[in-house]
Amino acid sequence: MKRKIMLATSIIAVSIMSFAFTGIPQTKPWPVPDKDAKMANPVKADKESISGGKALWSLHCASCHGKTGVGDGSKAAQLKTQPQDLTTKAMQSQSDGSLFYKISEGREDMPSFKKKIPDPDDIWSVVNYMRTLKK
Amino acid sequence: MKKPITSSLPISGLTKACLLVILSCSLGTVMAQDTTANHSVVKKTSYVKNTFDGNFIIDNQTVMVPVKGTFEFDIQHRFGTVNNGFTDLFGIFSGATMKLGFSYTPVNNLQLGFDATNENMQVDWNLKFALLKQTKDGSTPVSITYFGNLAMDTRKKDSTNLFVNVSDRLSYFSQIIIARKFSDKFSLQISPSVSAFNNPAGYLNVYGTQMPQWTGAHFSISASGRYKISDGSSLIANYDQPLSQQPGGNTPRPNISFGIEFRTSGHDFEIFFGNYSSLLQQNNNLYNINDVAKGQFLIGFNISRLWNF
Known about the structure:
The complex is a heterodimer. Chain A is built from six helices and no strands. By secondary structure, chain A is mainly α. Chain A has a single domain, classed as Cytochrome c-like domain (Cytochrome Bc1 Complex, Chain D, domain 2, Orthogonal Bundle), CATH 1.10.760. Chain B is mainly beta. Chain B contains two helices and 16 strands. The termini of chain B are far apart. Chain B has a twelve-stranded antiparallel beta barrel with strand order 3-4-5-6-7-8-9-12-13-14-15-16. Chain B is about 10% helix and about 45% strand. At the A-B interface, helix 3 of A face loops of B.
């Protein structure tokens, strides 16, 4: 009898743990088409571009990604997917073209910004600003 | 009682001169842009962006026209004057003028809108068109936008109003907005305007003669400024000056308003103090009785929600 109770308890515990772990949002790979990933950034990362990118970042991105890009924005807790830390080496190793593609197209919680930021040069400026977030 | 809008305007010579100079300057700049259009084919023209944060700056339209495909929903309130203090919580509980607005930008540089306000149950159809945009290289130093509306008083006909024909219910507002972004933080705009009512109120004098209380058309000018204090917030201010003189001491009072604006990706929120209590420009420009000198200020707010399609 004791054995049966222990077995049942173990099964319930394992089930709860497996449910608990599946509840943690996993970051899915975000494939970027090759031609987009290889796209060169036509906007020079000068003072004007970075300043413009910073203003757009504050307006459109900071509420989720946080002021410094670590993913601690005021809306981050309400999202299904935790925004990734954009200051890390892994994130910063992505090409400018990949970041441009992801900002433009969006995915799930992350909206597409190609209509909100209609000038592609402005999106490139956001990419230039994102490079300054690197730790 | 009906007074045609073509009646002579009691407008001073100095005012006429000012308006002529402003309109001549703006037309001159428009023509100058046309003549250089061929050169811009070679080099991509780079326009100054975000001269203001939204469509409104307190009581006025800004020079901004949203990007193509933007749908905007606006909620505006103007509460009572603050003079009664805590009796009506500085006007907030004394009733409010409200307006709901909807606008859409079907093509670049053109916005079409429809509004409804509880003041005389007026509705209006409006149009905003960007005529000229300030360039980064300074070749075009200002942005110029036209804004106009046609409003209709939709109250039921009764003894308190004077509607004989549908046209008696109509009023119009036309404005040229000339703006310059001086730096990332500071922008300024000057907006001469004309307001016209088909059937402004009148009265019969002791001899039984019909006398106008207001003329059918009225000129005004406004100056509005923004100073950004952070990427998402700005200090904003307006000054509106009536130019036309109205008969019998009915010349409207000028307006001073100032407040703060917050902008997010999909919202624009402004809260402010000012003298104007109406939400249609023509009503404010012709009928404002709140006096700066008497401290007749009120609290108001504008909320805009934007969607991009």
